[in-house]
Amino acid sequence: MKAGRFIGAAIAAVMTFCCMAGIHKNGFDMSVFAEENGFVISTDADGDKYISGYTGSGGDIVIPSGVVWIGEKAFYGNTSITSVTIPKSCWYWVDKNAFRDCTKLRSVTFEGSIDGIGESAFSGCTALERVTFDGDVGREDGSGGIGYRAFYGCSSLKVLKFSDSTAKLDMIGEHAFMNCTSLSQAELPADLSVIYSGAFLNCRALSVVSVPSGTKLDGKYIFGYMYGSTEQDGKKGYALADGKKKLYIADSAKSVSQEPVTLVVGNGSDAERYAVEYKVNYMYGATPVSKKKLPAPDGLKSTPGTDSVVLEWDAVNGASGYRVYMYDAASGKYEVYKSVKSTKCTVTGLKAGEKYKFKVAALRGANGRYTAGTASGELSVSLKK
Known about the structure:
Blueprint: H1 8-13, E1 31-36, E2 39-43, E3 49-54, E4 59-62, E5 67-70, E6 81-86, E7 93-94, E8 107-110, E9 116-117, E10 130-133, E11 145-146, E12 159-162, E13 168-172, E14 185-186, E15 191-196, E16 200-201, E17 208-210, E18 216-218, E19 223-227, E20 237-239, E21 247-249, E22 254-256, E23 262-265, H2 270-278, E24 281-284, E25 301-304, E26 309-312, E27 321-328, E28 333-340, E29 344-347, E30 355-366, E31 369-372, E32 379-382
Parallel strand pairs: 3-5, 4-6, 5-7, 6-8, 8-10, 9-11, 10-12, 12-14, 13-15, 15-18, 16-19, 17-23, 23-24
Antiparallel strand pairs: 1-2, 2-3, 19-20, 21-22, 25-26, 26-29, 27-28, 27-30, 30-31, 30-32
């Protein structure tokens, strides 16, 4: 399990600020592993592959399978990449500024789940039109998600889509989509824990947002306009759009208008509280918190030793982690051994020559609580003598 690579407690403490820059690998004793089709692939202190640079010709690129994360500034300022597909193997992290100012990038697709997207990872990608997530964006402990200014200033972005409406998203960080002035479709998943201040500021094309019933809205300035500049009155201010007056937006250097945003909320939800408190238009009918049960992992197999066994299994789409069970002869039932992030677990402290039985279930998280899906079939393992 790779939880040790996160500054988990510290991130939870500063989540209001949503910087998330501290979520990265520990031990930066890293060396270049290889160069593959222009991707500079390095290994970190844990032996995992990550992208540390790019020298290729651009166009539509696919991150090589087996890469676990994308390093800081790996593609920063690239002007030849037009789309990027991030495979299921890249489950860990897109580090800060990884694709910042890639001004020809038009689409990003995450084929599987990923722990998080770092500070300004795609900021300034002014041609970016579509971002699609086919899995979760989060961690078992809830400290992942879309970080501070992750997509700030992506002025052509029209669609933010989660293919699985029941997916888990730990958070949308402060100013994550600020100044995405073309964003008109934001499909938020059911298991979204929190949206922070400024997340959708100056998104003037965003007229309706359905906020899941279990989502917390933390901050006053999540929707609306931050306006003004030294050219106008020497300071910035905040206003909700009313569809009538125009506001001078400092970052765009022009006056713009917007129809008022309407939130679709659940009765008694925090989004309803937010809308009433800050006088935002709202209506009822929000997405409920997901109760979908994940299927059992396939392909459970083992590599036995004399006092331990390595278990491996296939990934389950939408899983935020996995729970390993070991049969306890004393109780006559399966007991929880450990919860892990990856599709691999080493069980230690066993006796040579003995036989053990295991099962594995996928975990889905929601609002700080995690539920196990259907458990796999039983796997019997005999240790070496």
